[in-house]
């Protein structure tokens, strides 16, 4: 990352109300360099311009932090891919106890090496959890084991709610990162969210710093345990679900 890019990163984070220290900026710098280098040999992200990585991955992920949902919480990122949003959240809010979950093992292995070597955070991430969310959510130590579950660009809202809410403790939160053109899929998920133990979703659009792009955060408070029958198989979840808006 050039000095201009690092200053730009710090300014954008300030616009989001965040005040990153030098260590956090250094880690984001190393993360960006490692991501772009590894992307030459492994499919990690379609975004290859460093300024766009800062805007569309770092600012977008960091935009969750002003919710104040995270300090000292047990957090799960479902379908983390190259670590978004989970790893950015952890770098900027180190008190999080973070688990990164993905069905693709080679991405998780890369994330683990990144945390231990380049980012020098050997204790930074509690677990790298390989497997399908709908299978892992049935394991005793995972089910209703997290204060906050986040997910970005994994499935349409009905599928995502069924995939994520079983992991959330009663009293905890599910935060879905969506595009702002998702009214229909959010409406399509309302009945199912209630059956899964969630309150009515709260929808908030936010603007990415230095862009005209609006993204959407869908917040669901969990108020009751998820019935044993959920999550169903991936095929069952997808039946009738609309195409995802991220
Ligand atoms: N969240 C990242 C982001 O926003 O850049 C990655 C998004 S990528 C489009 C979707 C990721 O979800 C992939 O890494 C994929 O392996 C993972 N994934 C899809 N379905 C999953 C499932 N049922 N359980 C666990 N991971 C899943």
Report on this model:
With about 250 residues, this protein is of the alpha/beta class. The chain contains 9 helices and 7 strands. The protein has helices at about 5-15, 20-40, 50-60, 85-90, 105-120, 135, 155-165, 185-195, 235-240, and strands at about 75-80, 95-100, 125-130, 145-150, 170-180, 200-205, 215-220. A 7-stranded mixed β-sheet has the order 3-2-1-4-5-7-6, with helices on both faces. A hairpin with a 6-residue loop joins strand 6 (about 200-205) and strand 7 (about 215-220). The longest helix is centred in the first third of the chain and has 17 residues, at about 20-40. The protein is globular, with a radius of gyration of 17 Å. The model has no long low-confidence stretch (mean pLDDT about 95). It binds S-adenosylmethionine (SAM). S-adenosylmethionine binds near residues 79, 84, 104, 134 and 154.
